[in-house]
């Protein structure tokens, strides 16, 4: 029976290391990715104190006056770094759908301590290893963000290994395709919404994610994350204390020849008649394979009767085109 809701999956049996435990988790993940493309994970090995520290420092950053936050503005539309103010992006444009600017502000970082080598610094690398920009005056901010990025990178590798098992591949199949990943950690602040908004304007408009997988640490404020199930219904992604929401992205859907689905999701506005302050914060890690990883149909996902449905594409080219659309509201980059 097809799942019409987002399941909660305990990763403890996988991390216990037994073949039976790994198979149990892989089977549950496979069903979630086939049916709805979303799951909530528990016992994920990420320290609670790290999550709480990053959350606290993030609140401090977004509480700064706008001119202070503007000092670390995103350098350019194709650069996934720095600050972006409320309504300066529209995620729906990544799907060629026009919509008002999203009711959120964000701060983004990519990999740190990038080696001074041609792979990372040469023309082929484009903006994928661009330097991070850091706010000043918030003690421990940079260290905490770098630590969180590293922890999410490790968790992503574990999830990719679970994915490999779920797809009947060797457990380490994806390792050499994500060992120089171009992922992004983005903190999001959704201001409380009490007054009128533009028609169709949401905290985050309906969209799919671009990469292999996304790991979200939301809070439980009103106005949260929803996914669209196979019946076309919007269902809430459940909030679980100390849990993460995980969804697969477009590249994983292409890799699996559409056996797994990259699901439309959105962040809805809180009820306007709610007397409470429903400001919301999320920590989001967008895992993206190495920029030169070729996303071609996996051997376990195609056959003579089910040939590949997508042309091969590199991870980096796909990411750049999608991100530019959302930051330029579909206009693309101007050519001088």
Instruction: Give me the strand/helix succession.
Output: EHHEHHEEHHEEEEEEHEEEEH
Q: Quick one: how many beta strands?
A: 14
In CATH, the homologous superfamily goes by the name: B-lactam Antibiotic, Isopenicillin N Synthase, Chain
Look at the structure and give the mean pLDDT. 87
Question: What does the largest sheet look like?
Answer: 8 strands, mixed
- Provide the CATH architecture: Sandwich
The CATH first-level class comes to Mainly Beta
Residue stretches low in confidence (pLDDT < 50, at least 5 long) are 90-96, 326-330, 332-336
- Major sheet strand order: 1-2-10-7-12-5-4-3
Structural class: alpha+beta
Work out the helicity level: 25-40%
CATH topology: Jelly Rolls
Computed CA radius of gyration, to the nearest angstrom: 19 Å
Morphology: globular
Could you explain how this protein is built, in words?
- With 336 residues, this protein is α+β, with helices and mostly antiparallel strands.
- It has one domain (8-330): B-lactam Antibiotic, Isopenicillin N Synthase, Chain (Jelly Rolls).
- 27% of the residues lie in helices and 18% in strands.
- It has helices at residues 12-16, 19-35, 48-62, 66-70, 118-121, 141-166, 250-255, 315-327; strands at 8-10, 38-42, 82-84, 105-109, 184-190, 204-207, 213-218, 225-228, 234-236, 244-248, 265-267, 280-287, 294-295, 313-314.
- Strand 8 (225-228) and strand 9 form a beta hairpin.
- It is globular.
- The N and C termini lie far apart (54 Å).
